[in-house]
């Protein structure tokens, strides 16, 4: 038996980038070149595969190995070797181990002769499900085009693919719109493609190139989805369910995102919540009262005492490194005479007849609220404090998210939350 040096193999592949153009599979008679080096760990060997074998350090010509219909290499000297279903890396290891006894030289290099046609099952939310013969060098996006494309109900962000590594999901929408090729997958890696229906969906509207419904995954943020919808202008303003939104906010199913144009956002004032006609209004509304009049007035369920104005930070103070985008400004006693400035976002909250208590409480939950209700009364509604003699009470404002320590005699506003926690460090 010969002594062999460490096995190393390189596949030199050239060709034109296929991109995302639709491909009429039946009309492509010649192989489509690979657009980039393949991954030998995910490339699946199939029946009819043509492998190229080079004996390094010898004058022997390059040999071509063609697998039979069962995916076997049949050779009079070395016998029968089943390779179908293996990755290219696994096939290399197996062939080198067998051929090393029959050939001498510095090593053996094994690669793909040219992209083969492969059978892929395409199912789910595509126009024409079925089994398709595709070139291994085509992408999953092109494979779905061959099946007539996605249906109107398809989730282009969550396409299931079955391959050498099991079942995985890929995001074709992000791949296409943000030109992230790593979000796409090549046909040589898969045996089945399933286009799925959406799971959780949000809606994007306003000054964007692609308004509509978008599916979301776990921990996705406002900016993740707005980026996919492609805002048409710079300096835009985002609203989530009618209220100002920061790009880092995590999304929930059925959220509504509105992108306000950059110029309009800089010059106008937004009002949302319990008003007849929420939206963006021009700078002519110099006071809160004038803006409310333009918006058709407040609805019957509005909480007139808790109106909040979210203001760009440079209208409030300057000289702070990396301040928040907007901060809440309480209207207070100014009422409808409160002066507004360009880019203000006014939120008129609805009156909620409940308040929440949680933490070290006998029965945490939501309880009926009434004007002037104290925190002590809310605690009593929850069955009293559990297991702590002197608890600390943490109040969270539902509109601004501001948190502060309060006493049991303090008054709680509608919809706000009290956390009963253990007093520590005192």
Care to describe what's here?
The N and C termini lie far apart (79 Å). The chain is 12% helix and 29% strand. It is α+β, with helices and mostly antiparallel strands. It has helices spanning 88-99, 140-146, 172-177, 222-229, 262-267, 288-294, 375-381, and strands spanning 50-56, 63-66, 72-75, 79-82, 107-112, 117-124, 130-135, 159-163, 166-170, 190-195, 200-206, 212-216, 237-240, 243-244, 256-260, 269-273, 279-281, 308-312, 326-330, 345-348, 354-359, 365-368, 392-396, 403-406, 417-421. It has 7 helices and 25 strands. Strands 7-6-10-8-9 form a 5-stranded mixed beta sheet, covered by helices on one side. The longest helix has 12 residues, at 88-99. It has 4 domains: 1-197, Outer membrane lipoprotein wza domain like (Outer membrane lipoprotein wza fold like); 199-267, Ubiquitin-like (UB roll), CATH 3.10.20; 277-351, no CATH class; 354-421, Outer membrane lipoprotein wza domain like (Outer membrane lipoprotein wza fold like, Roll), CATH 3.10.560.10. It is elongated, with a radius of gyration of 32 Å.
Summarize the structure.
The protein has helices spanning 88-99, 140-146, 172-177, 222-229, 262-267, 288-294, 375-381, and strands at residues 50-56, 63-66, 72-75, 79-82, 107-112, 117-124, 130-135, 159-163, 166-170, 190-195, 200-206, 212-216, 237-240, 243-244, 256-260, 269-273, 279-281, 308-312, 326-330, 345-348, 354-359, 365-368, 392-396, 403-406, 417-421.
């Amino acid at each position: 038996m010969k002594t062999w040096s460490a096995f190393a193999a390189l596949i030199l592949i050239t060709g034109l980038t296929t991109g995302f153009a639709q491909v009429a599979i039946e009309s492509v008679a010649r192989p489509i070149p690979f657009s980039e080096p393949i991954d030998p760990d995910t490339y699946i060997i199939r029946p009819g595969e043509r492998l190229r074998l080079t004996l390094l350090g010898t004058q022997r010509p390059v040999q071509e190995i063609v697998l039979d219909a069962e995916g076997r290499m049949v050779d009079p000297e070395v016998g029968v070797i089943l390779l179908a279903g293996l990755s290219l890396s696994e096939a290399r290891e197996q062939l080198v181990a067998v051929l090393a006894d029959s050939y001498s030289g510095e090593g053996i290099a094994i690669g793909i002769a040219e992209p083969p046609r492969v059978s892929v099952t395409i199912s789910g939310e595509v126009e024409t499900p079925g089994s398709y013969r595709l070139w291994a060098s085509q992408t999953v996006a092109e494979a779905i085009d061959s099946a007539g494309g996605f249906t109107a109900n398809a989730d282009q962000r969550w396409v299931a693919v079955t391959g050498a590594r099991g079942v995985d999901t890929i995001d074709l929408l992000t791949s296409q719109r943000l030109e992230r090729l790593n979000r796409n997958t090549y046909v040589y890696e898969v045996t089945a493609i399933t286009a799925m229906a959406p799971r959780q969906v949000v809606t994007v509207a306003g000054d964007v190139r692609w308004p509509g419904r978008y599916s979301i995954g776990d921990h996705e943020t406002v900016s993740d989805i707005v980026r996919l919808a492609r805002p048409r202008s710079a300096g835009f303003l985002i609203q989530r369910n009618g209220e100002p939104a920061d790009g880092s906010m995590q999304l929930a199913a059925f959220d509504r995102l509105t992108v306000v144009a950059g110029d309009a956002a800089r010059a106008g004032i937004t009002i949302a919540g319990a008003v007849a006609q929420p939206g963006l209004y021009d700078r002519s509304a110099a006071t809160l009262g004038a803006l409310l009049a333009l918006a058709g007035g407040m609805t019957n369920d509005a909480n007139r005492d808790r109106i909040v104005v979210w203001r760009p930070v440079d209208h409030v103070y300057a000289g702070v490194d990396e301040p928040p985008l907007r901060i809440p400004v309480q209207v207070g006693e100014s009422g409808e005479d409160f002066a507004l400035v360009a880019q203000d976002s006014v939120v008129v909250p609805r009156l909620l007849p409940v308040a929440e208590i949680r933490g070290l409480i006998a029965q945490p939950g939501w309880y009926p609220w009434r004007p002037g209700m104290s925190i002590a009364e809310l605690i009593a509604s929850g069955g009293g404090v559990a297991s702590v003699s002197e608890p600390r009470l943490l109040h969270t404002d539902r509109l601004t998210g501001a948190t502060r320590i309060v006493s049991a005699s303090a008054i709680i506003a509608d919809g706000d939350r009290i956390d009963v926690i253990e007093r520590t460090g005192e």
